[in-house]
């Protein structure tokens, strides 16, 4: 197909796609509709180095799993103790989280106290009993 852009002619050959009809059908505005899809478009799989139950393996771009190369006979323990390093940023974050949790607990207790006072003022004994149970669970 000959095309022209800003006075320069060129030949354009659009890529052709092999399309197949799928078995999925639908209905649009009362008319039957058949869906189609490109048949030869490969879906690349990620290449990854994975471990399953302590045994390593690799996946290829075709989706096949490849056996691991023979490793030396030294085995690492599966569970290792986690060593914590004194990090001031982690300490500060832990402190902020504790402070936020304490503020949250105080807000819940303040809300419960207010609801309990309103329930007592209205004379709703069933609600007072439920709120007192909730207050005991909080403490």
Q: How would you explain this protein's 3D organization?
A:
There is one protein chain. By secondary structure, this protein is α+β, with helices and mostly antiparallel strands. The protein has a domain of 51 residues. It is built from two helices and seven strands, in the order E-E-E-E-E-E-E-H-H. The termini are far apart.
**Overall shape:** extended
Give the strand order of the largest sheet, numbering strands 1, 2, ... along the chain.
5-6-7
Separation of the first and last Cα atoms:
80 Å
Q: Describe the main β-sheet briefly.
A: 3 strands, antiparallel
The chain-level structural class is: alpha+beta
DSSP strand (E) fraction?
Answer: 25-35%
**Which residue ranges are poorly predicted, with pLDDT under 50 across at least 5 consecutive positions?**
none
- Average pLDDT value? 81
Q: What is the strand tally?
A: 7
Number of helices: 2
Q: What's the Cα radius of gyration?
A: 33 Å
Q: Specify the helix fraction band.
A: 25-40%
Reading the helices and strands in chain order gives EEEEEEEHH
